[in-house]
Amino acid sequence: MAKITLENLAHSYLPNPSSEDDYALKELNHEWVDGEAYALLGSSGCGKSTLLNIISGLLQPSQGRILFNDVDVTDQPTAERNIAQVFQFPVVYDTMTVRDNLAFPLRNRGADASYVAQRVQQIGEMIGMEAELDRKARGLTADAKQKISLGRGMVREDVNALLFDEPLTVIDPHMKWELRTQLKQLHHDFGHTMIYVTHDQTEALTFADKVVVMYDGGVVQMGTPQELFETPEHTFVGYFIGSPGMNFLDAEIAGRHANIAGTQIDLGAGYGAIDGKTQVGVRPEFTRLGTGNEGLPINITRIEDVGRHKIVRADYKGQEINIIADEGQEIGADMNRVVFDPAGINVYANDWRVKGEAA
């Protein structure tokens, strides 16, 4: 297990990068705690896999250093970093049995035969393939082969880190849930440092202690699922996490009030002078439908019943607002206002969150 430190780390696939836009991975300075589970979350092309491959040693960074437990490993090859990596698509030895595939990393390091047998049996049960241990890998389905890849990544107990690059892409939805649960249990039992790359927020939020949200080649926030939900530090985090994502409305900020296209709302905190493009952000979970003169006047465009609640889609002077209503709530024609809970309002300037001061 290892603490992983990134120092002034950046990478460009161009031979002579001349500006920040030339970098697929913009400069990072982060320390990831020994034994914690992290998810790298972001849309395709944001730099997640580039960062993972630099940590594993498959890619040499253009600048900066990688340290495992304060030891510089930047120039070390993958084999010397003592990590296990599972890729998006299955990598198995077709001519070997499932048992031999799982045993390979242990036998390659000269582990005792009795330990190998015990550990392979344990991992075989964990991935639900104990009945197939003596089958050849050739002919197995893609999701079965990926389970073998996952098992081979997890079979060693002495690794510095376990790295997963979108490992559940080819797994059926029900098995995805089971394997995420098993990965979480593995982390609980053995305390490996784990880094899990995904573009799926459900995978990230259910797997990780801390989620590292990446956007346009940089880290915009690292925090717990609760922190990402309640206080997104960047508008991308608010938009990307949540279903639906955070509402963002252009606003003029003055003290503890925001003027949104002619209507004032209470922000619940005071703000000084703010430069640039200013917005308020509020998640649909912190909204409610109202009547009379409270809140913002809206036009409801449609209502979606998703079973556990209703999503009300509305329009306020050309700006879209999503509202969460209880499943059993009757939505009458007089419900033409939306009210924001001040405790759930965030203020943004040029896409970054501005901290308010309590009144």
UniProtKB/TrEMBL annotation:
GO cellular component: ATP-binding cassette (ABC) transporter complex, substrate-binding subunit-containing
Domain of life: Bacteria
Keyword tags: ATP-binding, Cell membrane, Membrane, Nucleotide-binding, Transport
Domain ABC transporter: 4-241
Gene Ontology molecular function: ABC-type ferric iron transporter activity; ATP binding; ATP hydrolysis activity
PROSITE patterns, per the entry: ABC_TRANSPORTER_2
Keyword ATP-binding (UniProt): yes
CDD domains, sorted: ABC_Carb_Solutes_like
Cross-referenced InterPro entries: AAA+_ATPase (IPR003593), ABC_transporter-like_ATP-bd (IPR003439), ABC_transpr_FbpC (IPR015853), ABC_transpr_MalK/UgpC-like (IPR047641), Mo/tungstate-bd_C_term_dom (IPR008995), NA-bd_OB-fold (IPR012340), P-loop_NTPase (IPR027417)
A Pfam family: ABC_tran
Family: Belongs to the ABC transporter superfamily.
PANTHER family: ABC TRANSPORTER ATP-BINDING PROTEIN (PTHR43875:SF14), MALTODEXTRIN IMPORT ATP-BINDING PROTEIN MSMX (PTHR43875)
Protein name: ABC transporter ATP-binding protein
UniProt source species: Paramylibacter kogurei
Lineage, broadest ranks: Bacteria, Pseudomonadati, Pseudomonadota, Alphaproteobacteria, Rhodobacterales
